[in-house]
Amino acid sequence: MEFKNHNKIYENRRIVLLTKHEKEKVIKPVLEKETGCELIVETRFDTDKLGTFSREIKRPKSQLDTARMKIRIGMKLFNTDIGIASEGSFGSHPYVPIPWNIELVLLYDKKEKMEIYGIYEGSETNFGHLETNNFDDALKFAEKIGFPKHFLILRSDDEYSKNIIKDIDSVDKLKDSFHWCLTKSRSGNVFIETDMRAHANPTRMKNIEKATQDLILKLMNFCPECGAPGFIIKEAIKGLPCEQCGLPSAMTLKYEFSCHKCKHENEQLYPRGEFAPAQYCNHCNP
Ligand SMILES: [Zn+2]
Ligand SMILES: [Zn+2]
């Protein structure tokens, strides 16, 4: 397949990013270099109003819908027709009890009516908490999660206490905050947790960068028919034949691509080889 020169697809366009947590540090360099756009940071809206990781404000919408809302607000404030947003979530892996981070970087081009996202999903996170009355244990926890480069949040009692201190980024602040929380505590414990805001968490920042790179990868795939960017996988079809018995397995047989603009469709057979190892076969390895 041959493409025209599609470099700098967003030359002369200003993409707005609504954030007050310095996400431009990782999004701007990648996006500007790869697409030729100018990234504008919009800070006139407090994104914490859409939900906080530390539970003072619940996120009422899904991760994707919250990202969409940030883009809408950003485009309105800056009066532009293209926006980008990042939205993360933290919890446990769906099957194994390990911390899990999903980072979404969403781009919406109103002019071209295109929505496309990049994603990072993995266990590279320091997401965690500790309830203790012992400052040495608190220090050990802090060390484990990469403090002070990674900030901490403290509360008296438990995760829902209103006595909360944020922006803890030095041992002195940690000590003062710990003792303040102890004096306020009814249970005698202090609740310590990792701060997941991007500017307070370099590990998360790195994952946002990875999601941005994934977005670029998807964006820079061009439709072979009309040349539009963002020619992405619409569906992965299972059924790769087993190497032993030839019956369809649960592994991917082909990817189906589709163009958001001209609706052209294309498929890529055998993205992971022509046969599935017998261990993935329901017939040979039940
Ligand atoms: Zn097309
Ligand atoms: Zn088989």
TrEMBL record:
<feature type="domain" description="DUF6671">
    <location>
        <begin position="72"/>
        <end position="286"/>
    </location>
</feature>
<dbReference type="InterPro" id="IPR046612">
    <property type="entry name" value="DUF6671"/>
</dbReference>
<protein>
    <recommendedName>
        <fullName>DUF6671 domain-containing protein</fullName>
    </recommendedName>
</protein>
<dbReference type="Pfam" id="PF20376">
    <property type="entry name" value="DUF6671"/>
</dbReference>
